[in-house]
Write a structure and sequence with these properties.
Elements: H1 2-10, H2 18-27, H3 31-48, H4 51-59, H5 64-91, H6 98-114, H7 117-132, H8 136-169, H9 177-200, H10 202-215, H11 217-220, H12 222-249, H13 256-263, H14 265-272, H15 281-292, H16 297-331
Helix pairs in contact: 1-8, 3-6, 4-16, 5-6, 5-8, 5-12, 5-16, 6-7, 6-16, 7-8, 8-10, 8-12, 8-13, 9-10, 12-16, 13-14, 13-15, 14-15, 15-16
């Protein structure tokens, strides 16, 4: 999307599009103000869905030491993702300050939970262009590769769950080969349409060239891509550990099958859903996965809600710590 707007703007073809005007307005909003506004909106969404009311009494049963330790680990994992964003920005050819990269990432996280993906993704790309000095194409590459790394990891978790018995528990899918045939036919049709569009449309050909440029960026700096991949694996391993701790605290036994079922498809589908941050979608699917594993759904649902709330607790703390570090560095 970022590359589309950049190319179109250069040709003078889409300068008046609403999305372009929205982009210009976004560049006028300071990143700290955008972070605070998005955090407020995201909190209201959670409150409206009843998450805050559901989790309050349950949290009182957890030992304070465990809560603090879990939040600390969660905060460190969020910082890992912020560093990954910086690494990807470097891979795309930028030379930003790492604190600026981290602030952009943390702001985009809150925006993601306050806005649908159709708005969150371009916002993330726009902030990367404005605050980190990357070109629109490079910014689009950072956003795309971050998404690819997360989707690939979550897909591995999902496939692992299916291979370890999840597919058998989904019964109707295991006995419906027509779904597999339909999926293959759909993929072929989509590829065919893209091939025809590539030959017929100069705009599509231009976009394909831009996409190719994005895809080849890791080949130019493979060491940075390896680091980004490693940070991705560390993050999701830590997140799985956090979920296991929460489940245990609420009375569920975090077996391997349960963790794979909860951390795979539910988060993957929630990430791709049009609902801001997958709110409600992810938690419902996590409870469903628990039921398929023969585990009581109530403790897992509480753990899922606590897992989401932990993000809103630690992200402002990490963001505030980075702002403080910037201030202290500037005072020296």
């Amino acid at each position: 999307m970022t590359a589309v707007e950049s190319i179109g703007a250069d040709d003078g073809q889409v300068a008046q599009k609403p999305l372009t005007r929205w982009w210009h307005r976004l560049t006028l909003v300071p990143t700290p103000a955008l972070f605070v506004l998005s955090a407020v909106i995201a909190t209201v969404i959670l409150w409206h869905k009843g998450s805050l009311n559901d989790i309050g009494p349950a949290l009182q049963t957890l030992p304070p030491g465990r809560v603090i330790a879990t939040l600390a680990v969660y905060a460190l994992s969020i910082l890992v993702l912020a560093i990954r964003w910086h690494v990807l920005a470097r891979m795309a050819g930028g030379m930003p300050d790492w604190i600026s990269s981290a602030e952009v990432f943390l702001t985009s996280v809150i925006v993601n939970y306050a806005a649908p993906i159709g708005l969150a993704v371009p916002t993330r790309a726009a902030l990367t262009v404005r605050d980190l000095g990357l070109t629109p194409v490079a910014s689009g590459a950072v956003v795309a590769w971050e998404l690819v790394l997360d989707l690939a990891t979550l897909s591995i978790l999902s496939v692992s769950w299916l291979a370890l018995g999840g597919l058998a528990r989904l019964g109707f899918l295991a006995n419906e080969p027509r779904l597999a045939v339909l999926l293959v036919v759909t993929i072929i049709l989509v590829l065919g349409v893209l091939a025809i569009a590539h030959r017929a449309s100069p705009t599509v050909r231009r976009l394909a060239g831009t996409a190719k440029q994005m895809l080849t960026l890791p080949a130019d700096r493979p060491s940075l891509m390896i680091v980004a991949t490693g940070l991705t694996l560390v993050f999701w391993a830590v997140q799985t550990g956090v979920m296991a701790t929460l489940m245990s605290g609420f009375g569920a036994t975090p077996s391997l099958g349960l963790l794979l079922g909860v951390m795979g498809l539910p988060i993957l589908i929630g990430m791709l859903s049009p609902v801001p941050g997958g709110a409600g979608v992810r938690e419902t699917l996590m409870a469903t996965a628990a039921g398929l594993q023969g585990v009581a759904t109530a403790p897992v649902l509480l753990a899922a809600i606590a897992y989401r709330l932990a993000l809103f607790v630690v992200t402002p703390v990490v963001w505030g710590g980075l702002r403080l570090a910037r201030s202290l560095r500037g005072a020296r």
